[in-house]
Amino acid sequence: MVEFAGWQMPVQYRGIIEEHLAVRQKAGLFDVSHMGEIEIRGPGALAFAQRLTANDISRLRPGQAQYNLLLNEDGGVVDDVVFHRLADERYLVCVNAANSDKDFDWLRAHAGGDAEVINRSSDYAQLALQGPLAESLLQPLTAAALQSLGHFHFCFAAVAEIPCLVARTGYTGEDGFELYCEPDRAESLWTRLLESGAARGLVPAGLGARDTLRLERALPLYGHELDAATSPLEAGLSWVVKFDKGPFLGRERLLKQREKGVERKLVGLELTGPGIARSHCPIFKNDRRVGVVTSGTRSPTLKKSIALAYVESREAAVDNTLEVEIRGRKVPGRVVKLPFYHR
Predict the structure, then answer these.
(1) CA-CA distance, 170 to 162, in Å (whole number)?
(2) Where are the alpha helices (DSSP H) in the chain?
(3) Please, are residues 210 and 30 in contact by the beta-carbon 8 Å criterion?
């Protein structure tokens, strides 16, 4: 157990590699109740949310979810979030744990009188059931027709007789569901899920496996690949930015960046020499520093050392050879196409 954003969180139960492979091959259950939830509601909720985000929330229908970015005036990322459209004038936003209070303050500071921002984080616990067996493990415990629940869709249903928001979302690169319930029902839900799925290989999984799983899929982690000084275009998230939706914070800065090009880009690295690249390791090309690692590990699935890194745009081409300095030793690597892992 470790302290994380004010919570005591499990790094591992029986082992990071075992839990990682269980999610890739069968299923794992994560307690992610540290994540924050913020509700935006009122007749001006949509217009307000559109002004502060990169993606086009107007495309959402009730029951749909969307990956999105909260932006600042310079086009930097305040947080990466998931919007759930609960009703025509009501949205539930899942935010990163370390940013929960910051995001709430940011949203509230920009809200007008026709949009209400409510911190609902203490009203929800969240469990994530992830892996190729997730649907078949969850279906016996709920009357919801999970087969018809599409990716980034959600519904309200009882799971093991516990009322939940059931979202087909996740942070592992596998199929799966995130279950939001009342905090005092979470332990019971956790126990029922594990008891029901244990015979088919469901295991509890911790922060360690969550990180290696998301890294194989090149999913960004706030504070590593994303921060207030990093733009979506640098981070390879230009697909999230919908310039044609109308005015939003940072739009003009991002338009200029799109026109001129970015000076650095997020890339995937595969080490071709021995070692594991970690966050903050410098990257060199012919003894000239050209970038820095943001996240790195030895991939349990691919059996290779992989890393995400920001490098000068001219060095970002696939198959370009670079060197990562690890404990004073330069280890060769090459730029590879992202994501590292495809299911």
Answers:
(1) 20
(2) 16-25, 45-52, 100-110, 134-138, 186-197, 207-216, 251-260
(3) yes
- Measured CA to CA, the distance from residue 293 to residue 221 in angstroms comes to 13
Strand 264-271 to 282-285 pairing:
unpaired
- State residue 5's pLDDT score: 87
Q: Is the dihedral of CA 169, 174, 179, 183 positive or negative?
A: negative
Six token digits for residue 91: 């949205």
Classify each residue of 288-307 as buried b or exposed e, where b means 16 or more C-beta atoms within 10 Å of its C-beta: eebbbbbbbbebbbeeebbb
* Residue-level pLDDT at 113: 80
Q: What is the pLDDT of residue 270?
A: 98
- In eight-state DSSP terms, residue 224 is T
- In angstroms, the CA 220 to CA 211 distance is 10
Pick from 3, 12, 8: which is nearest to 212 by CA? 12
DSSP annotation string for 268-330? EEEESSSS---TT-EEEETTEEEEEEEEEEE-TTT-SEEEEEEEEGGG-STT-EEEEEETTEE
Measured CA distances, 224 to 72, 148, 203 (Å)? 18, 35, 28
Structure tokens, 109: 């500071």
163: Cα within 13 Å, side-chain hemisphere: 5
Residue 282's SS3 state is: strand
C-alpha 161/C-alpha 142 separation (Å) is: 8
DSSP conformation class of 339: P
* C-alpha to C-alpha distance for 223 and 226, rounded to whole angstroms: 6
Question: Going along 42-175, which residue ranges are E strands?
Answer: 65-71, 77-87, 90-95, 116-119, 125-130, 154-159, 162-167
Which pLDDT does position 343 carry in this prediction?
Answer: 87
Task: Give the global pTM.
Answer: 0.97
Output the pLDDT for position 26. 98
Residue with tokens 């203490």: 122
Q: Give the pLDDT means over successive 10-residue stretches in the chain (343 positions).
A: 93 98 98 98 97 98 98 98 97 96 96 93 98 98 98 98 98 98 98 98 98 98 98 98 97 98 98 97 98 98 98 98 98 98 92
Which residues share a beta bridge with 85? Answer: 91
Structure tokens at 334: 């090459």
Instruction: Identify the DSSP state of 60.
Output: -
